[in-house]
Write a structure and sequence with these properties.
Elements lengths: L5 E8 L6 H13 L5 E8 L6 H11 L3 E6 L5 H11 L4 E4 L11 H9 L4 E8 L5 H17 L8 E8 H8 L8 H8 L3 E7 L12 H15 L2 H31 L7 H32 L7 E6 L3
Parallel strand pairs: 1-2, 1-4, 2-3, 5-7
Antiparallel strand pairs: 3-8, 4-6, 5-6
Amino acid sequence: MDKNPVISVVVPCHNEADCIGAFIERLRRVFADLPDYELELVFVNDGSTDNTLEILKQRLEKDPEIVIVDLSRNFGKEAALSAGLQQASGDAAIPMDADLQDPPELVPQMLQKWREGYDVVLAHRQSRAEDSLAKRLSARWFYRLHNLFSQPGLPENVGDFRLLDRRVINALQMLPENCRFMKGIFAWLGFRTASIDYDRPARIAGRSKFPAWKLWNFAMEGLTSFSTAPLRVWTYIGAFFALLAFVHASIIFWRTIFFGVDLPGYASLLVAITFFSGLQLMGIGIIGEYLGRTYLEAKRRPIFIIRKVYRGEK
C-alpha cells in the first residue's frame, strides 16, 4: 500500500453516554502504538434518549477522526451497524460495542491477520463468565439449533466484533434485505476467514440492551432468515400424526368387528382436540413469522434513515 491504510471502527450507540469517553481513550491508546494505520471512528447514534449525541459532538471538536451518524430514531442495532458500515470509508472496518466488552487491545492481532491476507477476522469468545448461566445455556442451544437447521452455520460464540476487509463491506452493501440478522449475513458472505480467541470482560457501565424477550425475537429472526426448516418440519409432524390416526382407526375398526362397540369417554377426546389445536396454532404461527417477514421486505422501506452526518475537520 502506498499510504497508511485507514481502519474504520464502527460503534452503534444507544444510550451509551457513560461509556463513550473511556472507549475513545482506550482505542486511541491502542492506535498510538499503530503508527502505520490511520483511525476513522464512526459512531452511530441509534435514537439515544440520553446525552450520547451531545457528548459525541463535544468530542468531535478535538477528535477530527470521529464521524457521527445520527439516525432519525431508534432502528435497532442491526440497522445501526448497517448504517455505520455504509458510512465507513476505511480499507477495513471493525464493528465494536462502546461498553468495552469488545477489548480494543485485540485490534493489533486482527490487523496482523488482515495483513496475512484474511478478509474477515473473527473475535471468538472463549469465556463468557460475565454472562448469567441462563444466558450461556440459551446461547449454546441457539447456536446448536441454528447450525442444525440453517446454512451456512454460524461460528459459535462470535458476535459482531470482527474485522471486515473493504471487499467484504462492498459485498455487504449489495444485499437489499430489510430484516437483518448481521451474524448470519456475515457468515453468508463467506470470504477467507481467521479467528482469534479472547475472554470477554464485563461492561464498564450501563446495562445490556438485549433482555430475554429481545434475545428470543433475535433468535427467531436468525432462524427464519436463513432456514425454511421450521416450515418444512410441519410436513413431517402432520405426516406423523396422520399415520398415528390411521393406526388408531385400524385398531378401533378391528376391535369393533370382534368385540362390539363400547362407550368411549370424553376426557381423552377433549385432550386430543386441545393438543391438535395447539399444534395447528403453532404451525400457523410459524407460517405467520415467514409471512410477516415477506410483508416487510415487499414494502421495500429503507433499513434506516439518517438525520445528519457530522464529520470532524482534519
